[in-house]
Amino acid sequence: MSSFTLFVAADDDRREVIEIVAAAAGVALVVKAGETCPGAEGFGPAMGGVPVISTAQGPIARTVPILQYLAGVHAHSALHGDCLYTDAVVDQWLQVFLADIAPNLRILQDVAPDGTVAEGSAVAQAARGKPVAPKAGLALRSRAEAATAAVFAALAARLETHSCLVTERITLADIAVASQLLPLLESGAMPSVAPAIARWALACAHHAAFVAVRGAPTEAAVNRIMSAASAVAPAAPAAAAAAAAAASGAGAPAAASAAASAAAPAATGLTNSGSVSAGALSAPPAFATRWSRGRARASEVLTAGAAIIGQTVTVGGWVRSARKQSGLAFIDVSDGSTMAKLQFVVKEGIADADSIAAVAKVGTGACVRGTGKVVATRDGKSVELECTSLSVMGDIPDPSKYPVAKARLSMEALREHQHLRPRTNALAAVTRVRNACAFATHRFFQERGFLYIHTPIITSADCEGAGEMFSVTTMMPADPKGPIPRTEDGSIDYSKDFFGNPAGLTVSGQLQVESFACSMSDVYTFGPTFRAENSHTSRHLSEFWMIEPEIAFAGLEEDMSLAEDYLKYCTAYVLEHCAADIEFFDQRVEKGLRDRLQNVVNEDFVRLSYTDAIEILCRPEVLKKAKFSIKPSWGMDMRSEHERYLTDVMFKKPVIVNNYPKDIKAFYMRANDDGRTVQAMDVLVPRIGELMGGSVREERLDVLEKRMEEMDVPKDNMQWYLDLRRFGTVPHAGFGLGFERLVMYVTGMENIRDVIPFPRYPGHADV
Amino acid sequence: MSSFTLFVAADDDRREVIEIVAAAAGVALVVKAGETCPGAEGFGPAMGGVPVISTAQGPIARTVPILQYLAGVHAHSALHGDCLYTDAVVDQWLQVFLADIAPNLRILQDVAPDGTVAEGSAVAQAARGKPVAPKAGLALRSRAEAATAAVFAALAARLETHSCLVTERITLADIAVASQLLPLLESGAMPSVAPAIARWALACAHHAAFVAVRGAPTEAAVNRIMSAASAVAPAAPAAAAAAAAAASGAGAPAAASAAASAAAPAATGLTNSGSVSAGALSAPPAFATRWSRGRARASEVLTAGAAIIGQTVTVGGWVRSARKQSGLAFIDVSDGSTMAKLQFVVKEGIADADSIAAVAKVGTGACVRGTGKVVATRDGKSVELECTSLSVMGDIPDPSKYPVAKARLSMEALREHQHLRPRTNALAAVTRVRNACAFATHRFFQERGFLYIHTPIITSADCEGAGEMFSVTTMMPADPKGPIPRTEDGSIDYSKDFFGNPAGLTVSGQLQVESFACSMSDVYTFGPTFRAENSHTSRHLSEFWMIEPEIAFAGLEEDMSLAEDYLKYCTAYVLEHCAADIEFFDQRVEKGLRDRLQNVVNEDFVRLSYTDAIEILCRPEVLKKAKFSIKPSWGMDMRSEHERYLTDVMFKKPVIVNNYPKDIKAFYMRANDDGRTVQAMDVLVPRIGELMGGSVREERLDVLEKRMEEMDVPKDNMQWYLDLRRFGTVPHAGFGLGFERLVMYVTGMENIRDVIPFPRYPGHADV
C-alpha cells in the first residue's frame, strides 16, 4: 500500500474529504495537522494555509490536485470518469463544491435556519466579537441559499435518474460533493433536500471509505437525512430530469435513455453500462459507442459495493458452490472478472427457478444468470445479489462427470483438462495476471515511444542453431502412405516445398527486429517462439512467447537500465492491478510472494561484471559458506547455484551480471577491447534466477564477419543481416525474456505448463 | 479535427487561455461571446458567468475542466504531465494562477506601478465612479505584490533550471501561467521579473499556439519583457534553485541532477528525458526509473518546437538527403519517430566533422548523431538543429550499392529489401500505423475488461479444414537423403514425431479461445495464424495476424455492436495518433483516405439481414444500374461486386450483413429457428469489402453434434470443444479480423505484402 503524509491546518475541514478519497483509493495517509510541509512554501502558507501532501517525487499543494493524485495512485481505484468527457464533469463538480460554492456551504453550516450564528464560526469571527443579530444571520443565509439553488437543482435532477453523480459508480465527484453535504444534512443545518439527493447521500455515508474515516452514520443522522428528504415534494418530471442530466454529465444518448427509463429508474445503473474500466487509460478516442454488455461483471458489483445498494443489476457466471437453507438458496458465482465470488440469494418460487431444490441442484459448474437488487451482506462488509429472477443457462447433467468439480485438484490433474481449468481459482488468477503482464508490456514500451514489430514466425534464417527448430512443410503426404518428393539423388526436394527451401519455426525475432531498430530506432517484439528440444522439465515449453526490445544509439548501460525499468514496471503494474490475485498466490502458492515482488520494485538492481562476480564467488569465505557443487572459475557459464548465491545470499536483490566471456555467448554480441569479453548482460532475480538476457550488438562489419567465421556461422543466408552493418550502421542493443518465465516470476507458479493457456511439450499438442 | 463551441461572457479574459490551449491541442473552437450554453444552467449564470463548452456528449463548465478536456481530446497533444505526480503539479499551477492569485494578478494589471487605476477596470468599478487616489491604488498594488511574491519566487526558481514549468516540455501549466503573465509583462504592468521567467515567457509568446491566438509578439512587447528581466539581479544560487525546484514539481532525483547541472543549465532539457510520451496513458506504475535515451527523438524536438529554442539536444538518425551551400551543410535526418525530417545545420570545422565536403559526402542512408542548439527555421514555422558536433556512426562506402537510395522505388522493388525498406517514407509510415493499430486493439479490449489470451500456434485441432494447414514436424531428416520414419505398412509413423501425432500451424484461435470465454466471460486473441494456400494474390499471406474476441452471455446484437465499436476505435485512434502518416497516405496512396476513415468513425453502421440484402440486390432498378457479372440469389455467397454495391453505392457507409444461409457458413454457428439461416455477420466497409466476420456460437450440445454430423466434422478430436456445451454451457459470440486487412484499410496500401514486416507467401520465407 502506498503511503503519503498530509500537512493541513489543525482546523481545516478539507482534511476529511482528502482522507475519504485516500480510503476509497486504498492509499494510506499519515496526517500531520498544524505542521507545514518543507519545500512547498510557494504554494502553502503564502496562500493562506492550503493542504499539502508529500510524495516520494515531491510535494503537491491544494485540495483538487491532491484528490486527483490520490485517486490515480492505484489505477484500479476507478475514481475518475470513464472517458475524457466524464473526467471533465468530475472536475467540474470538484471545482463547484470544493471552491466556488464552498463559502456559501460554510455559511449554511454556521448560520442556523433561524439565523443564529454558531459561536467561534467564521461568520462570528468576521464580526470580531460583536454578536450577529438573527436578522443579519437570516439575510446571510438566504443569500447563500440563493447562490446555491441552481447547483442543488442540477444535483437533484442528475440523481433522479442515476445512481451516482457522473458515471454509474462512485467517483471523486461523489466523494467530494457528499463530504461537503453530509455534515449539513446530518446536523440539520439543511432541513430540506430533494429525496434523490438524500438517497444518494445515505449511500455515500455507508460507503466503506466514508465509514473508514467518519464512522458509520448514526441512527439520528440517518433520521435527520430522511426527514430532510420528506420535507420536499418528490421527483422532477422526466423531461426536466433529462435536461438536467444532460447538464450534469450524462452523455446525450444516456440522457435520452434516462428519460425513456424514468418510469423504472431502478432498472438503470450498472446493468447496461458496458463501461470503460477504471482510470487505467485516459482519453480513449471519441465516437458514439453501441456495445453494451447487458450484464454487470461481478468485479464491478463488488467494487462499487455500498454505492449501488438498492440498484437492480444482472450478473452471469458459473456456480462455484451452492447451498440450501430454510427456503433460500445461496449460490456463489464467478464470472472470471475477479477472485472474489458474488453471492446470489434466491428465494423459493421466483421466475425461472421454481424450487429451491432445483436451484440447489444446479451445483458447481452450472452457468447461471441472475437479476436482482444489490443488498448488503449480513456483516455489512460487502454486497450480494437478492435475485428476482434466475436463469440456468447451462446445467451439469451428471455432476460426477464434471472434471473440475472438486475443490482442490492438483495442477497435474488440471493439465488434463486445459479447456476447463480456467474455471478454477488458480488458473483464473494466472489468466488475469498473464493478461496484466502482457498489457503492461505493451504500455511500458508504447509510453516510451517504442514501435511494436511483428517478426516472422516461419523463417529460413536461424538465430541460435538449426537443431532446435521445428520444420514447417507442406510435403507431408495427405495419404500417410504417400511419398515425399525427392530429387534424383534421393535428397528431399525442398524446391517442391511451399517456400522452395527448408523452413522452420522461429527461435527468436531478434535478428529481424534489429533491421527495424536500424531504421525506426526503438522497437520491440512480442510473439511466439519455438524450441524443438525434447525437454520434459518444469521450465521448458516447445512453444512460448518472447519479448525482445531493441534500441538504437544505445550501449550496455542503457540496455541494463531499460531491462530494469521494464521489470519494475510490469511488477508494479501487477501489484496494482491484480492485488487480490497476488494475495491468493501469496497464501496458496508462495509465501512471501508480495514482499519478493515489492523488493524488485523498490531496489536498485546491482550491476556486476562477470569477472567481479566470479571473483566474489571464489572468495574463500564464500566457497566455505556456499558449498557449491561446482567451483566457479572464470570462463564457465555460471550455474544456478552461483547465480542464486549472488541474488539470494549476497545482495538479496536483483543483480545484472555483465561483460561475459565471449566464448559462452552468441556471435552477434559486441566485442570489448580486452579481446576476451563481450557486452552481454543477464538479469538475475532472487528465488528465480535468470529472467532476461541481452547484449550490445556488434555493429562493426569487419569484426562481425570475423566472429562469424570463428564461430562457423554460415554467412550466405545472413547477407541481409550484414547489410545493416554495411549501410549506415548504428550502435544498438537489446534483450529478450521469455514471457512465461515472467508470469512464473510474478505468480510464484512452479511449472511453466500452468502459466500458458495450452502448453506444448513433447507429445502434447492436442487442443 | 474535432470542433467545440465555447460560450463565454463578452469581456471574460479567460477566453484567451482557452483559445490558446485549443490551438496547442489542435482542436477547433467556435467562440460564441455573450451567449449562454443551453443545458448548463446549473453551472453557468448562477455562478456568475463561467465559460462553458458544448461537446457531443454534453456541456462542460469552468475553465480548468475545460482546459483539461481540450488538452485530452487528442492524446498526442501531450499537454499533461508525464506521470501521475507531474499531472498533479500541472493541476496545482492551474489552480494557483487561474483561481487563487487571479484576483491579485487582475489588480497588478489594473493598477499601474504608480498607483493610477485604469478607467473601467474592476477596481475602478468597485469604487462606484469615485476616483481612487493613487495612494489607495499603491496600497492595493503592494498587497497584491506581497500576496504573489512567494509564487513568483517558486516560478523563477523552477525556470532557472528547467525549460518548462512541470516537465521539460510545454504543458497546460505553461500555457495557463504564461497566458496570465504575458499581458502583465508586455504592457509594462509588471516592470521587473526574474530573467528566467522572462526567457520562458518569451519562448511561450513565440509558441505556435500563442501566435495563432494572440499573433506574434511585437518588437515593443519583446523589448518590454527584456527590460523587465534586466531590472532584477540575475539567478538564484544553485542550492536555492534546487530546493525551489523540489517545491515546484521536479522529482527528487531530477532536483538533485538539476542542482548538479546548474553550472551548465543549457545541457539539461529534452536530451536526457527518456520520457513517457504524451498523455496517451495515465498514471504508469510508480518506481524510480533508470533508463534514459541520451538523445531526443526527432518527433519530440519538432513537436516541442519554439518551446525549446535555445536548448541543447542530441538527435541520432539516418540521412535522407544532404546538401552543401556556402560553408554550411544541411542534412535532413529521420529516426523513424515521425514522417517529418529534422534538419541538421553543420558549419565548417566543428568537432568530428572537419570539412563540409566530408559531411555532404555521407549522403542518403548514413547514420549520424548530432548535438547542437535548437533554432528556429528561417520561415519561423519549425525548428532545426544547429550542430556543435556531428558524428558519422555509419557511412555508405559506395552509395551506388545502397539498395534504397533512390527517392521513389516501387513497392515491388522494395519488397526485395525487406530489411532496409523501413528506411523509406512509405514503409516507415506503415510501421507506425501498424503499431498504432496493434496498441489500439489492446487498449480497446483492455479498457473494456477483456482478457488477452494466447491461443496455441501448433495444434492438432483444426478449425476450418486441414487442407490449408502447414505441417509442423521434427521428422524431416537432418541429412536430406535420410529416411522419414514409417510404420511397417509404409505409413508415416507420427508416433515418432515430436507431438506423437500429426500437428500443424493454427488457422484460427477461435475454438480454443471459446474455452476461455466459457470461464472468464470476455476475452480476445491477437496472434499469428497460417494458411498453406498456394495463393499469389495481393490480399493473401501464408502467415498473418488475427484478432478474435469472444464474449459470453451475448448474442448477435452485442457481437455486431462490439465489432462496430472496435473498428471505430481503431480508426479514430489512428486518425489521432498518426495524423501526419495518414496525411502522407492520403496524398500519395489513396486520395480521400482521411474522409473515408472519418466516415467510418462518424456513421452508424447499417445492419441488414442477408435475406434483405439479396432482396435489395435483386430489385430490377439495382440490377439495371449495377450490371453484376453474377446475378445475386438467395443461398449464394455474396461476391465483392454485390458487397461493394451495398457499401459504396447504396448506403455509402459500413454495412453489417447478418443471418446468413447455414450452408455457406461454419458448423459452429448458431442455428436460427427458421431452419435455414445461422446467426452470422460480416462487416463490409466501403472501398474495402469484408473486414470482419463473426457469429453467435451454437451453445446447444444436441444441435451442435447434429450439425457436425451433417457437415462431416469429425468429433473425436473435438470432445474438449463439446465439453464446453456439456458442462455449464453459455450463449456466446465473437468475431475475427485479419490484422493486415485492418492495416490495409487504414493506410490505403493495396498489397498485403507491404503492410507486414516480413511477408510470407509461396516461395518466400527468406529473412
Automatic annotation (TrEMBL), chains A, B:
The keyword Iron-sulfur does not apply. It is an enzyme of class 6 (ligase). Its EC number is 6.1.1.22. It holds the Pfam family tRNA-synt_2. GO terms for cellular component: mitochondrion. Keywords: Aminoacyl-tRNA synthetase, ATP-binding, Ligase, Nucleotide-binding, Protein biosynthesis. One of its GO terms (molecular function) is nucleic acid binding. One of its GO terms (biological process) is asparaginyl-tRNA aminoacylation. Residues 443-757 form the Aminoacyl-transfer RNA synthetases class-II family profile domain. PROSITE patterns: AA_TRNA_LIGASE_II (PS50862), GST_CTER (PS50405). Residues 83-229 form the GST C-terminal domain. InterPro entries: Aa-tRNA-synt_II, aa-tRNA-synth_II, aa-tRNA-synth_II/BPL/LPL, Asn-tRNA-ligase, Asp/Asn-tRNA-synth_IIb, Glutathione-S-Trfase_C-like, Glutathione-S-Trfase_C_sf, GST_C. The keyword Ligase applies. Belongs to the class-II aminoacyl-tRNA synthetase family. NCBIfam families: asnS (TIGR00457), PRK03932.1 (NF003037). PANTHER family: ASPARAGINE--TRNA LIGASE, MITOCHONDRIAL-RELATED, ASPARTYL/LYSYL-TRNA SYNTHETASE. This is asparagine--tRNA ligase. It comes from Cafeteria roenbergensis (Marine flagellate).
